[in-house]
Amino acid sequence: MADIATKIDTDTPGLPPMRIVQLMVGLALVLTLARPVLPDFLVRLPESWIPPLADWLDYFFNVIVIETLRINELTRWFAEGPLDFMLGFTANLLEGKHRWPFVGPLPWSCVAAVAAVIGYYLGGWRFALLGGGTFVWTAMVGQWKIAMQTLSVLAVAAPLAFFIGLLMGIAAWKWNWFDRAVKPFLAILQTIPFFTYLLPAVIFFKVGPTAGAIATTIYAIPPMVLMTALGLKKVSPEIVEAGKMSGSTRWQMLTKVYIPSARTEILVGVNQVIMLCLAMVVLTAFIGMPGLGGKLLAMMNSFKLGRSFEIGVTIVLVAVMLDRFSKAWVVKLPEHHERGTSWFVRHKYLVAAVVGFVAFLLIAQFVEILDKVGRRQSLSMGKEMDALIKGFLAIDAVQAITGWMRYFLNVWVLIPFRNALLYIPTPAFILLVVSFAYWLGGKRPAIFAATFFTIVAFSGWWDRSVITLYSVISAVILSMFIGIPLGIFASRSEKWSTRILLLCDTAQTFPSFIYLLPAIMLFGVSDVTVVLSIVIFTTVPLTRYTIEGLRNVPGEMTEAADMSGATKRQKLLSVQLPLALPTMAVGFNQAIMFAFFMVIIAAFIGTQDLGQELQRTLAGTDLGKNFVLGMNVALMALTFDLTIMNWAQKRKKALGLS
Amino acid sequence: MSDSTPVISCKNVWKLFGPNPKQYLADMAPGRSFDEIRADGYIAGVKDVSVEVGRGEMLVIMGLSGSGKSTLVRCFSRLHDITGGTIEVDGQDIGELDENGLIEMRRNKMGMVFQSFGLLPHRTVLDNVAFPLEMRGQDRHDRRERALEVIKLVGLEGREEYFPRELSGGQQQRVGIARSLAIEPDIWFLDEPFSALDPLIRREMQDEFLRLQEMLGKTIVFITHDFDEALRLADRIAIMKDGAVEQCDTPDQIVLNPQTPYVEKFTEEIEKSRVVHARVLANPVNGTAPEGEPVRAGHTILQLARQLVNDAREELPVANKKGELIGVMNRQEALDVLLGKDT
Ligand SMILES: Nc1ncnc2c1ncn2[C@@H]1O[C@H](COP(=O)(O)OP(=O)(O)OP(=O)(O)O)[C@@H](O)[C@H]1O
Ligand SMILES: [Mg+2]
To answer: Which CATH architecture has domain A150-288?
Structure first.
């Protein structure tokens, strides 16, 4: 990476940039070494300097928003009125909650049949198998009810997020000021840890499905807004003009020309909405929502790994199904029928779905197993698997290996690293971050880094922020040791590239919660587990972007290297890697973002970072504190995001790759 | 063919692309050239154009790529708001129209075929063609009937249920033509409407438009790069360069009296005798008309070539279709057109 340094904008007058970086790092080093003799206020900000931000926020919410503006009455009305109605509706149909229309629950076989038909329509037999199979599995292992609890919230939150996102996207496309106002907001929204969504939801919408649905909805809105605006902007001007020349009114233009022409982007947005909703709805377990996530959390807490594993499989199946289906929908273009084709043939899939639904509805009246799978009948192997896993972990060799790994990581890597980070005085730490941002990204990211980290310092949660950062950095570095070699290996052959990319794609659709499972299975509940679950989670984007970066190196460049007689190794080191680096940086960035996300989730295992404090706020009504903590995570994440993306862009331009 | 009231009349029309065109135009010194304007950061898509299009006339616009043809036509239909000048359609200043007025005008008066078709990707051929009818609020059955009719006319029968992506370029272009035909507009803007068609269908389409124009008295503004096509269709030709109309005249005049060096160069390669009609070379009779067989006013010099070479008379009488004498043509002058001047 030595050549990167020379690429920083050299047009700045005064000191050369490299000099500035050296000066800053030097100063930070001096401060750190001099820590024993530094005055206290230079080591950590004294308590008295820290503004009571949380209290102000609390005041703002409690007095202004709630008591004066009475916003919570509005939100409660919405939550208890329309939203509660919709949730009740889906909950009745899917899980049989005693609410209007009092017909549910639908037999599981009906749902499976419809899913199979939809699958067949979207992607043939394999998808039919995936759709039907997912629900058959869910019913068979006896998780029908909790799965339906999750899906009934999803079925409300996803359409809601879709509509709100669509409307906001249209507004952002139509009015520039709205676009400009909303963009930074969306960027922040996408880096805020999900706990920060949860508490306001709880406060404004009470605990339970409504709060869960609201948090889920809000969480899924940003990509829909962005995709909608993007799609509408991309509609070709001639299509627009053709619409105008046909004498369309504004409304006709929007509904008949723009939105249908932006179909692809809008459907990509739908895919993202669904996947984010699923990820979030699983996480609402933390505010006590029942469902797959809740059950998984409970099972993990009581260390019932067999059952956890089964729930994990269900979640993964549901995720893969939803992702594949919605992606297939994006590329599925309408097919034409010959003229004079009858209605039944034109709508054969609809007919098949209705027939399947009704048929199983009737059969289920007589064959009980097709209606509900009782506790006794279920094929769950939870207990057996528990025994198996525990037996496996008890094997001496396994124990020796995991024990040694835990020891090595903890004693030689993680704890010393953490202590070192904590030892650095606050100003020195900020200086290091700023010099990093300056070195890599240039002036603008450096200014942001300085501002953001100063705010973090003044938030009063410095140590916990540093610990959060420590988990993130150590996990990302560890995952680099796995992801990059794996990516390099896979990129060597077409076959392996596609395989591993497919694997990464699939893994990225899993709700993050799932990644805790393997780590807990191997290492139980400990500090190492947290880092390892992040490692597993972040290896995915790293591997993926490494492969993509390497495979997208222009052919003529590798050929030029071949012709110069470079060995494989030389070619990799001096041609492919440098060219792939900007793309890999995107993966690196995503890994860091994922890590920030995961570290907060992993907190329930018991860590000492911001995540744990955040989780504590959920129990009470510490809205102010919740916001401050969430803000800290977002600010740190944004610093990295700005820096790395800035560098990647500059670098791409310099290499002529963009 | 055309009567005197102009359907489209545009005066000193400007269309500038750039950050703040209105202001720039107001402050601009008169007579600034295209390149100077570009140096100021603006593109003159249309530069001080004044043209009139008569009722029932076919005006063909020609010019090199990027000369502003499409932009000018877009100004006529107010797809672009013009930066300066006025455009009147049927005596109505279209710049003054409010949104509803504009929609009305486009629904009832105008049709357009786009250079790159502008088909709605999510609609079948049938639904694309019926789209303007749908916008007008016509009922389902009627618009279907009408759409099927024009689809047949452009030779796409049997493809009604196809989606644009399932059609070839030429077929897509014909869908665009059919769509503009569906509402039978009075004024037609055709932006290279036949560019993707094979010569056979192209000729058929040209005939169709000529027929429509003659039978129904449609006014057509037609953009093409093909001079032969222009000759077949045009009442007048406007030649554009750098946003400005260099010359707007009948084909005969354009080749005989090019008004700028650019037009001269543009028409250099063209066989003049194919363009120039006897009527244009006819001078008024002073004194007595020469004896003998007259030549037909409507024939081109090329068509008269054999006669011109064989005839020995100095002056030839020119008669119109009905046989009435309209003037005399100098044979040497006509031979100059045919063979080129001796230099
Ligand atoms: N929306 C726009 N914004 C900026 N510049 C434009 C715009 N539309 C056209 N121009 C510019 O105006 C000039 C004229 O473009 P126009 O499309 O009218 O050319 P044309 O004569 O139709 O060419 P062609 O024969 O290739 O279709 C070009 O230089 C073009 O770049
Ligand atoms: Mg054009």
So the answer is: Orthogonal Bundle (1.10)
